[in-house]
Amino acid sequence: MIHPDTLLYVYEVPGDRRDVPPAAPATFIGLWNEDECTYFFFSGPEEEYVRSVVCSNSSIPHSVHEVHYRDWQDGLPREGLTVAGVQFVPSDMSNPPRDAVLLDPSVAFGDASHPTTLSCLRAMGRVFRMQTVNSFLDLGTGTGILALAAVRMGARRVLAVDRNVLAVNTARKNVEANSLCGIIMVREGDVRHFFETRYDLVAANLPFHVLREICVLDGANSHRTWVVSGISKNQGRTLVELFSEQGYRLIYEWADPPWVTFVVSRPSPPR
């Protein structure tokens, strides 16, 4: 776990890097890929290492950001919190409650503090009470929080997907910490490429442009129910219309301005 007072050093490097750099120092936390840039996270200043090893002296970082971890994300409270009947506690808690989800968010998205994460968890709780959910697909898993919660809610087969290396590594560590490697598979890749198998429930807390593309892909309408978040009210209306064209109907919708989360379902998905 990263202490709230830890000062993070974030180096923005051009290019979509995927591999951990060689001889990474002990301060190295992980790397995040976005918009043709890679962000390298350290718990101490490592400008010389980044210049000489990461950039091979052929380029220099676009920028360097210094931010305290508590300003990067809230992190779980030391006593944990409960959402939709699932208790989340810090992974380093001594004597954690039985069946609590151990979570170390590192610097990836998904520590249960963001409104869209909370809304997804609450929406999932309603879906699990409404129908039988044996299989669950988590698109854009971040820390793996939704995938871990799905197992506690009753799912027996879970696939968690993210394109960011740091998110994948963080999610895998959290899955291992909860001894759920036999139930949850974590995969790195574009979420558009994971529709070959039917799932009872799909959760997608993603940017609008990605959601707009994936909801009409071949195979997207084979899943029974979707929980969708990370969008505005107007964007939500557009997506609900697209899902309706695929045979889904709106079941629930929550507004937590500026965010909207909704659930769409179909009674009998095509096979």
Word description of this protein:
The chain is α/β, with parallel strands linked by helices. It folds into 2 domains: 7-72; 81-265, 3-Layer(aba) Sandwich (Rossmann fold), CATH 3.40.50.150. The protein has 7 helices and 14 strands. The protein has a 7-stranded mixed beta sheet with strand order 10-9-8-11-12-14-13, sandwiched between helices. Strands 2-3-1-4 form a 4-stranded antiparallel beta sheet. A 3-stranded mixed beta sheet has the order 5-6-7. Helix 3 (115-130) runs parallel beside helix 4. The longest helix is centred in the middle third of the chain and has 16 residues, at 115-130. It starts with 6 loop residues before the first strand and ends in a 6-residue tail after the last strand. The model has no long low-confidence stretch (mean pLDDT 91).
